[in-house]
């Protein structure tokens, strides 16, 4: 790592900038005297709001172009929402640090879950996530679903057109937004996306000086949980679009990772849920994925 300004690559959305600025503040606090600049961009997925994420390549749609800035040497590191990352880290990059996790939960905006259940087949819900859709469909019998794209502000403006839209609670908290009707769903009610609420800091794998400098920004417990969740995703086959979610917690006293995960069958008629614990998070994630795959016949 050179002595010049640290160049942080990020998407230019308000939430992505909040994430990058938070990491920048932590870095300069750990390394007084070092300055930071931002290398910002709007990805193709940011520009094509008319196309479902699944048609834009699914996971990685918001991260691949930002990663290329780091690989090309145009930036020193990239800050991502971990849930946007593809399952396998590209050659030449490494997740050097994972700050402490924020709120992993999903929220309904515009209605409570109880009210949606009461409305049943009359309920109209918007979400761009297959994972959220299949879990809500299992609870709200007959509900209809539409896609939802755009930055946080854009999605919130669409809430009035539906009984509810679904978002990540961390996004609302980080942007200081407080819609009138918000129902925060527990991780038992709605298993989160892999990495939800977590930031990932990527840099070139051979930049050992920068990797060492990022060590103070790493929250070891969160990093360990993210590794378990990502191992689950890798075992499923990487970035498949079959609805899946996983959320890991760590019991420090027993040094045990617990992983709660869901997986849908290909026809989405069956959604299997499994909770399992183990000392080795990577092995645990892979084991849970194999069992769920067998449970839904994949």
Using brief descriptors, characterize the structure shown.
298 residues, D-Maltodextrin-Binding Protein, domain 2, Double Stranded RNA Binding Domain, 13 strands
Structure summary:
The chain has 298 residues and is an alpha/beta fold. The chain has ten helices and 13 strands. The protein has helices at 14-30, 44-47, 64-71, 113-119, 130-139, 152-157, 169-175, 208-214, 220-235, 281-295; strands at residues 6-11, 36-41, 77-81, 93-97, 106-109, 124-126, 144-146, 164-168, 182-185, 199-204, 244-251, 256-264, 271-278.
- Rg from C-alpha positions? 19 Å
Q: Could you give a short account of the major beta sheet?
A: 5 strands, mixed
Query: What's the architecture of the largest domain, going by CATH?
Result: 3-Layer(aba) Sandwich
Give the fraction of residues assigned to helices. Answer: 25-40%
Order of helices and strands: EHEHHEEEHEHEHEHEEHHEEEH
| Spatial sequence of strands, sheet with the most strands | 2-1-3-10-4
Number of helices: 10
Question: In the CATH scheme, what's the topology name of the largest domain?
Answer: D-Maltodextrin-Binding Protein, domain 2
Number of domains: 3
- Summarize model confidence as the mean pLDDT: 91
The backbone outline, from C-alpha atoms, is: globular
Specify the CATH homologous superfamily of the largest domain: Periplasmic binding protein-like II
Question: Which structural class is indicated by helix and strand composition?
Answer: alpha/beta
Q: What is the β-strand count?
A: 13
DSSP strand content: 15-25%
End-to-end gap: 45 Å
CATH class of the largest domain: Alpha Beta
Low-confidence stretches: 47-51
């Amino acid at each position: 790592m050179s002595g010049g300004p640290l160049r942080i690559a990020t998407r230019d959305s308000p939430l992505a900038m909040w994430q990058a600025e938070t990491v920048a503040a932590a870095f300069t606090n750990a390394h007084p005297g070092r300055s930071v600049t931002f290398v910002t961009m709007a990805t193709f997925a940011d520009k094509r709001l008319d196309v479902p994420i699944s048609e834009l390549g699914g996971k990685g749609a918001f991260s691949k172009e930002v990663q290329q800035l780091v690989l090309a040497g145009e930036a020193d590191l990239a800050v991502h929402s971990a849930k946007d990352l593809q399952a396998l880290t590209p050659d030449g990059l490494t997740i050097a640090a994972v700050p402490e996790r924020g709120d992993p939960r999903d929220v309904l905006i515009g209605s409570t879950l109880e009210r949606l259940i009461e409305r049943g087949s009359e309920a109209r819900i918007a979400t761009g996530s297959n994972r959220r859709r299949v879990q809500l469909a299992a609870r709200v019998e007959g509900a209809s679903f539409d896609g939802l794209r755009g930055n946080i502000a854009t999605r919130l403006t669409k809430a009035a057109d539906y009984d509810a839209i679904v978002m990540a609670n961390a996004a609302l908290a980080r942007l200081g937004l407080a819609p009138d009707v918000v129902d925060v769903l527990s991780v038992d009610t709605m298993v989160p996306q892999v990495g939800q609420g977590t930031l990932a800091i990527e840099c070139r794998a051979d930049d050992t000086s920068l990797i060492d400098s990022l060590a103070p920004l790493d929250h070891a417990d969160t990093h360990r949980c993210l590794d378990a969740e990502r191992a689950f995703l890798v075992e499923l086959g990487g970035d498949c679009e079959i609805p899946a979610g996983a959320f890991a917690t760590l019991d420090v006293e027993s040094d045990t990772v617990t992983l709660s995960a869901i997986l849908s069958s290909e026809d989405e008629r069956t959604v299997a849920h499994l909770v399992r614990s183990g000392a080795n998070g990577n092995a645990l994630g892979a084991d849970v994925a194999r069992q769920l795959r067998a449970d839904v016949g994949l």
